[in-house]
Amino acid sequence: MEILYEDNHLIIVNKSPGEIVQGDKTGDIPLSDLVRRYLKEKYQKPGNVFVGVVHRLDRPVSGVVLFAKTSKALGRMNALFAEKKAVTKKYWAIVERAPSQAEGTLTHWLRKDEARNKSFVTTPGAKNAKESILEYRTLYVGDHFSLLEITLLTGRHHQIRAQLSAMGCPIKGDLKYGAKRSNQGGSISLHARELAFTHPVSKEFIRVVAPFPEGSDQLFGKFAKEIR
Fold first, then answer.
1. How many CA atoms lie within 13 A of 180 on its CB side?
2. CB atoms within 10 A of CB 81
3. What are the angstrom distances between the C-alpha of 142 and each of 31, 94, 191, 224, 227?
4. How far apart are CA 188 and CA 93, in angstroms?
5. What integer pLDDT is reported at residue 228 of this predicted model?
6. CB under 8 Å, gap of 24 or more: what pairs does 176-185 form?
C-alpha cells in the first residue's frame, strides 16, 4: 500500500486497479481495512481503529483515495466534498480515438441502473437522472489512443466512463462502456491523478499527485514522458 499523505486527521493512499475501497459482496479485503491495519500497527493502537471512507473509486480504477482518521475529520471532509469547487479532482484517462475538440465541457443527464451497475445518458430532467458535468483537455494523441485530463465538476456513478463513451471516446479496457478490448487483469485505463483541497482543520492547502501504480496501464507512463 502506497501512502501519499498522512497527518493526524487524514490519510491518502494510491489505489491499485483491482482493489476495492470499501467491503462488498465479494468478500475481498477492502482498502479501508488495509489502512486500518496499517494505522493499528504503526501507532500500536488497542481496540478498534477508526477509518472513514470519504469517497470511492471503481474497482478497475487506480489512483488517489482519501480516508479520514477521526469521525470529526470525516464529517468535515464530507461537507467539503459536497461543496462545488471546494475539492479539485483530476483524472487521467487513456481513450480510444481523439476527441473532435481538444478540450471542452461535457454535460449529460445520467441515470443509474442498479441491476446492471451501469449509468446511461438520458434526456435532461428525466426521472431519477442527475446532471453530470466534467471538463476535459487532450494531453497527448497517439496512433491508436489518446490521453485526456478530466476535471470532475459533479460526482456521479461511473460519470467519467459514461460521459467519455457518450462523446465517442470510451476508456481503454472499459468493455462495459464500449471499449473494443479488455485490459490485462480487468483494469480500465482511468487513473485518479490529483486531489487538491484546503485542509478542514489546519487550513493548509493540500495537493496530492498519484504516480501510476504497478499493474496500471503502461501507456500512462509512456504518454506522460511525451508531454513533459
1. 7
2. 15
3. 33, 10, 18, 12, 11
4. 9
5. 66
6. 176/118, 177/118, 179/96, 180/96, 183/60, 183/217, 185/17, 185/18, 185/215
CA 198 to chain centre: 19
Confidence of residue 60 (pLDDT cuts 50, 70, 90): very high
Average pLDDT over residues 25-39: 90
Q: How many residues does the chain have?
A: 228
pLDDT at 215: 73
pLDDT tens column, 68-98: 999 999 999 999 998 877 899 999 999 999 9
Query: How many Cβ atoms from other residues are within 10 Å of residue 124's Cβ?
Result: 9
